[in-house]
Amino acid sequence: MSESKPAGQFFDAAIGLLRQVRDEEGEHIAAAGTLIADTVAAGGRLFTFGAGHSSLPAQDVVYRAGGLALMNLLPVPGAVGVDVVPATLGSALERVDGLATTVLDSSPLRAGDLLIVISLSGRNALPVEMAISARERGIKVIGLTSVGYATGTTSRNPSGGFLKDHCDLVVDNKIAVGDAELTADGVGAPFAPASTVVTSAIMQSMVAAGIGELAERGIEPPMLRSGNVDGGHEWNRKVMAEYGDRIFYRR
């Protein structure tokens, strides 16, 4: 594939970002793994949240082959994915004050749990309030965001802060403001967003770090196997039965 073509350029850009995150955020990713392992070892529960396209990396670690069975998605009706009509409603809901607190009030999250909040810009009310309200409840919060937005944009949260300002740990995905890696003659706007590729890779790396740390402590991580290999469903049923009190996507 020619590097001068947009497809090749996108791969180069994404690979470059992945290398940058690996080299510059390695300590933070390892720290995230420690928080995951600490939570599991203490009997806590694990949750992920993201709105709009930031929900994709959150969903990527939940109920999947090769994944940690204890990862749960914290859904916000209308704000997760683009399955609502009009799709712009999801973006509007990210700016609604009080929504995150209402969601947490009716969620199973409690003190001692861990919540990973994903927001590329980290500027909207929903993810910022989610982090603030969760920490007030004694929940540890990992923020996965682009720190660059904090200097390149203004906050839309009443607190005036960004997601990065309200977390126990922040992992920076290094995505530039605007989330578009390419430009071309005849195309009126930048294109080819890489945030999903990079942020999903970070999520998998953080979970992998947690799994590895649990194993090092002599704690067997509850893993899921593919249902498309022999014995996979039987294995998963045993895991879900044993850890059912910490798995919420079955209820």
UniProtKB/TrEMBL annotation:
Residues 36-221 form the SIS domain. It comes from the Bacteria. It holds the Pfam family SIS_2. PROSITE patterns: SIS. Coiled coil: none annotated. InterPro entries: RpiR-like_SIS, SIS_dom, SIS_dom_sf, SIS_GmhA/DiaA_subfam. This is SIS domain-containing protein.
